[in-house]
């Protein structure tokens, strides 16, 4: 009876158990790789993965997506650690988590879905470019420059240095081999692919390095408990810095947007319960708050682990919680295994992950159908490489707002001049200050010695700046010795009839 009751209480335990092992094997090399690339101890990546599985995994929100350290935050974390130091990272992540909790409580989760997808994809593309450039140096055992532009511009010189060093060539060979294994792994039979490609690549790289005694650097191990450093009172004093506040806001915005976009993508992969966005945002906030207290990396929902979870047959949140348990057992029982992993193998994993963040195919199709959105994507990516993460995202958001405002202010101006009688001018659409210069140019080009009928009944919106400018123009035109300009006021109704059809003497202009 006991076993029957357990089965009825956990009807999908077998599927979730199997899926949790797959997710664990996918998450393990990524947790370590993201931590090393972020400039923090490898164990802190495991801590974030453990918290993402056990803490965030238990909370309501999305049942099947999996959280942990993400490649998308690697650049921002590295900049934060480099600027403020590792102890301050806990404060940044803690405050960002508390902000996520507050936003979820205020039911702002769904608003993150209003962020332009082009800005998000541009953000990920910019991150991918910086990751690839930086990890190419790591693959050769060289120190990468600080800025994204310097990383890219310095690659030819780094290549020249690498080809003149036996150690660098050996390191590059391990990194390149790791990437090759991951790319070719997808072409193997389905049975072989039950082992994740990233894990297989790291294991093979480790075996080859040990077998041939290659002179490559390996992961430095501190121990799980030794790597955990809760922030002290001195670190909180940094909150008076405008730069740290900006970094916290960047963490909050990017982590929240990436998690909720991931939730929307994961929902399309299964037919189970849909994501409750406000609760998911609070779950992410709770996880980040715990990570901040432990001085660990920030977390987001990660689409790679989440899609692996769904593909492995997970049915409930038990799979992601168990994957956190497996990470905890590995970190507690086999920490020495980390010291065997070659750093260029982790760099190869990050280069592969960075490449997948760049939507090359999507950009081509986007350019064909929506060039404005494609431009936003490219500008956001380039801005992140040229400036930094936070300002690059702000530039993308600002450009998206400007584009939307410009499109929302679409106006049609139609002039009908039959050669005799009044000149008829029809305005339809939305008359805003953005279109005011062209409106006035068209009106001021009308004959001064002819009466004018200005029909505004086709306008859906007329802002104060346009109304004032039209009134001033009408007064000036009427003062020229002609009949006063006859103005038909905008109609206040949901649907506005089309202006009268223009005949042979009519011309229409979209401004």
From TrEMBL:
<dbReference type="InterPro" id="IPR001902">
    <property type="entry name" value="SLC26A/SulP_fam"/>
</dbReference>
<dbReference type="Pfam" id="PF00916">
    <property type="entry name" value="Sulfate_transp"/>
</dbReference>
<feature type="transmembrane region" description="Helical">
    <location>
        <begin position="325"/>
        <end position="355"/>
    </location>
</feature>
<keyword id="KW-1133">Transmembrane helix</keyword>
<feature type="transmembrane region" description="Helical">
    <location>
        <begin position="162"/>
        <end position="185"/>
    </location>
</feature>
<dbReference type="InterPro" id="IPR011547">
    <property type="entry name" value="SLC26A/SulP_dom"/>
</dbReference>
<keyword id="KW-0472">Membrane</keyword>
<feature type="compositionally biased region" description="Low complexity">
    <location>
        <begin position="502"/>
        <end position="511"/>
    </location>
</feature>
<feature type="transmembrane region" description="Helical">
    <location>
        <begin position="17"/>
        <end position="37"/>
    </location>
</feature>
<feature type="transmembrane region" description="Helical">
    <location>
        <begin position="44"/>
        <end position="64"/>
    </location>
</feature>
<protein>
    <submittedName>
        <fullName>Sulfate transporter</fullName>
    </submittedName>
</protein>
<feature type="transmembrane region" description="Helical">
    <location>
        <begin position="236"/>
        <end position="255"/>
    </location>
</feature>
<keyword id="KW-0812">Transmembrane</keyword>
<feature type="transmembrane region" description="Helical">
    <location>
        <begin position="375"/>
        <end position="402"/>
    </location>
</feature>
<feature type="region of interest" description="Disordered">
    <location>
        <begin position="479"/>
        <end position="511"/>
    </location>
</feature>
<feature type="transmembrane region" description="Helical">
    <location>
        <begin position="197"/>
        <end position="216"/>
    </location>
</feature>
<dbReference type="GO" id="GO:0055085">
    <property type="term" value="P:transmembrane transport"/>
</dbReference>
<feature type="transmembrane region" description="Helical">
    <location>
        <begin position="84"/>
        <end position="106"/>
    </location>
</feature>
<dbReference type="GO" id="GO:0016020">
    <property type="term" value="C:membrane"/>
</dbReference>
<feature type="transmembrane region" description="Helical">
    <location>
        <begin position="118"/>
        <end position="142"/>
    </location>
</feature>
<feature type="domain" description="SLC26A/SulP transporter">
    <location>
        <begin position="13"/>
        <end position="380"/>
    </location>
</feature>
């Amino acid at each position: 009876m006991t076993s029957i009751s357990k089965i009825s209480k956990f009807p999908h335990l077998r599927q979730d158990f199997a899926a949790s092992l797959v997710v664990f094997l996918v998450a393990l090399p990524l947790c370590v790789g993201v931590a090393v690339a972020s400039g923090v101890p490898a164990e802190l990546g495991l801590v974030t993965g453990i918290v993402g599985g056990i803490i965030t995994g238990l909370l309501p929100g999305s049942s099947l997506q999996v959280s942990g350290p993400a490649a998308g935050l690697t650049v921002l974390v590295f900049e934060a650690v480099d600027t403020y130091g590792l102890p301050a990272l806990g404060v940044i992540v803690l405050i960002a988590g508390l902000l996520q909790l507050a936003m979820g409580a205020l039911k702002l989760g769904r608003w993150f879905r209003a962020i332009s997808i082009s800005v998000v994809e541009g953000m990920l593309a910019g991150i991918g470019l910086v990751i690839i450039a930086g990890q190419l140096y790591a693959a050769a055992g060289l120190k990468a420059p600080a800025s994204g532009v310097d990383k890219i511009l310095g690659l030819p010189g780094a290549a020249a240095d690498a080809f003149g060093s036996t150690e660098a060539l050996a390191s590059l060979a391990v990194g390149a081999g790791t990437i090759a294994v991951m790319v070719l792994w997808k072409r193997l039979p389905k049975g072989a692919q039950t082992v994740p490609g990233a894990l297989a690549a790291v294991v093979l790289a480790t075996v080859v390095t040990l077998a041939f005694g290659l002179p490559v650097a390996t992961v430095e191990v501190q121990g799980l408990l030794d790597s955990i450093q809760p922030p002290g009172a001195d670190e909180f004093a940094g909150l008076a810095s405008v730069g740290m506040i900006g970094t916290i806001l960047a963490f909050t915005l990017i982590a929240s947007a990436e998690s909720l976009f991931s939730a929307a993508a994961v929902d399309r992969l299964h037919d189970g319960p849909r994501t409750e966005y406000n609760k998911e945002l609070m779950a992410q906030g709770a996880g980040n708050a715990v990570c901040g207290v432990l001085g660990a990396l920030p977390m987001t929902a990660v689409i790679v682990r989440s899609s692996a979870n769904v593909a492995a047959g997970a049915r409930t949140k038990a799979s992601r919680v168990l994957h956190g348990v497996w990470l905890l057992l590995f970190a507690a029982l086999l920490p020495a295994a980390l010291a065997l992993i070659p750093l260029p193998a982790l760099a190869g994993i990050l280069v592969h992950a960075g490449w997948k963040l760049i939507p090359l195919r999507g950009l081509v199709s986007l350019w064909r159908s929506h060039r404005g959105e494609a431009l936003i994507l490219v500008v956001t990516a380039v801005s992140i490489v040229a400036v930094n993460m936070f300002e690059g995202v702000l530039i993308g958001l600002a450009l998206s707002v400007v584009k939307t405002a410009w499109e929302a202010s679409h106006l049609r101006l139609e002039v009908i001049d039959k050669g005799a009688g009044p000149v008829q001018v029809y305005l339809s659409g939305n008359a805003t200050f953005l279109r005011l210069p062209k409106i006035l140019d068209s009106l001021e080009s009308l004959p001064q010695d002819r009466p004018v009928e200005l029909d505004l009944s086709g306008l859906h919106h007329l802002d104060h700046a346009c109304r004032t400018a039209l009134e001033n123009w009408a007064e000036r035109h009427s003062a020229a010795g002609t009949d006063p300009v006859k103005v038909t006021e905008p109609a206040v109704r949901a649907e506005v009839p089309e202006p009268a059809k223009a005949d042979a003497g009519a011309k229409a202009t979209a401004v």
